[in-house]
Structure formats: C-alpha cells, structure tokens
Design brief:
single chain, about 250 residues, mainly alpha, 2 domains, 7 helices, about 80% helix, rod-shaped, ATP-binding
C-alpha cells in the first residue's frame, strides 16, 4: 500500500509536474518574495492575536478565581467588605500590553528566522553560481550548479549557466579535435620544409661562398617564417591537450 501511494504521488504530484503547472509569473523572485512577505504578515497577525487571546484569557481566569474566592468569603461572613471595582482598569491594560509584547517578541523571532532561512537559500545559490563561473574562468568547463528545476529567477540562471557551459564544453572539445588534426597533418610538412631550407643554406655557403647577401637574407627570412609556423602548430597541439591554456599558447606562439 505504501509503495502504491509513493508511486501515485511520484506520478501525479511530483515536483516537476507541480512546477510545470505553476504559472510563469509565480517563478519570479520578486513575486515569490512579495507572496512570502504577505504570508508572513498574515501568519504574524494570526499568531499575535492567538498569543494575546490565550494570555489575556489566562490572566482573566486568575482574576475570576480571585472574585469567586472573595464572593465565597463574603457569603460565609469571613469577608465583610465588597470591592466596587474588583477588576482594575490598570490591571486589564497591563495584561493586554503584556500579551501584545509577548506576541510581538514571538512574531519577531519567527519573522527573523524565516528571513534568515530565505536569505541563506538565496545566498547559497548565488555562491554556487559564482563558484561554477570562477571554475569555468580557470578552464574547468565540467563544473555545474546541479540545479534541475526552474523554481525562481536564480534557479533559471543556474540552469542557463549549466546549459551554456555544456555547449561551450562541446565547442571547445570540437575545437581541440580540429586543432589536433590540423597540427598533426601540417607539422610534418613544415618540419620537412625547414629541414630543406637549412640544408639549402648550408649547401649554398659551402658550394658558393661568394653568394649575394640578398639570397642569404631571404633564406634566413624563410627559416624564421618556417620556425614561426612550427611554433604555431606546436601551440595548436598544446591547445588540443589543454584548452584552459589556449589563449596563453596562442600568445606565445605569435
């Protein structure tokens, strides 16, 4: 029976279904805070009225017992004086004031506790989002907020951040694969070209010692360009291995 009830609630009254039925305007943090403030105000008034009622009723019962006691003493002749005002106005005002003060203290404690709880929940979500964004800035694109339901503005932001990081992680992975393929395909020809240029320069100096300086300068320039190309492809390989250092790798390669 318990298993059937659990299955029924999970199927018809699950958190996801309830959130799907919830209108969009109810998922706004401002609306939720306004409703919460209104609920707290109503609960506070009810609590204050209840506490005041029971406190005043308790005090009035004590006063009534005193009146009954004095009446019995008067009837038996033990008490000959009759108080024209058995319940003092000052006492009634003091009882009411004490009741309101007690109710106010309890309501204040309840309100402060509720506000602290709500603030901690919101701050916890903000801290989680900040932690995930800082991790992403440092290169860890696998970090997530782990929020599944869009119950409020912060929850929607958390879900959007997770979705953004998932797409970004896929794009970076694809870029890394492309960079690795390009680097592997072109690094070998560039290395061979540089080797041929070095061989040509050595042969030119050995066979023709009196070559024009312009030819040697052009060879040196070609060697520098080939070295720069090799550095760029090395940077592409480093990018494919560590996407977090992509910017630094490209900067040093240039």
């Amino acid at each position: 029976m318990k298993a059937r009830l659990t299955a029924f609630f999970n199927r018809h009254l699950s958190k996801r279904k309830l959130l799907a039925v919830l209108p969009a305007w109810m998922k706004s943090s401002a609306i939720q805070q306004g409703l919460m403030f209104g609920s707290v105000s109503i609960i506070s008034l009810v609590l204050m009225a209840t506490v005041t009622f029971f406190y005043v009723e308790h005090e009035l019962k004590d006063q009534n017992r005193e009146i009954v006691k004095e009446s019995q003493q008067l009837a038996t002749g033990h008490h000959k004086e009759v108080d024209d005002d058995p319940i003092e106005d000052d006492e009634i005002l003091a009882v009411l004031a004490s009741g309101f003060v007690l109710a106010g203290v309890l309501v204040s404690i309840f309100t402060v506790a509720l506000v602290i709880a709500m603030s901690r929940i919101s701050q916890k979500r903000i801290n989680r989002i900040e932690k995930v964004l800082n991790a992403a800035a440092e290169g860890d694109l696998s970090s997530r907020t782990q929020v599944k339901y869009t119950t409020s503005d912060l929850a929607r932001i958390s879900v959007s951040v997770d979705d953004m990081l998932s797409r970004l992680e896929g794009s970076v992975a694809a870029m890394s694969d492309i960079s690795a393929n390009i680097a592997h395909e072109l690094k070998t020809p560039i290395t061979r070209l540089r080797h041929n240029l070095l061989t040509l320069r050595e042969d030119a100096e050995r066979v023709e010692p009196n070559l024009e300086d312009t030819f040697i300068e052009e060879l040196d320039k070609a060697l520098e360009d080939s070295q720069r190309l090799a550095s760029i492809f090395d940077a592409l390989l480093r990018i494919s291995q560590s996407p977090a250092h992509a910017e630094a790798a490209l900067w040093h390669s240039t």
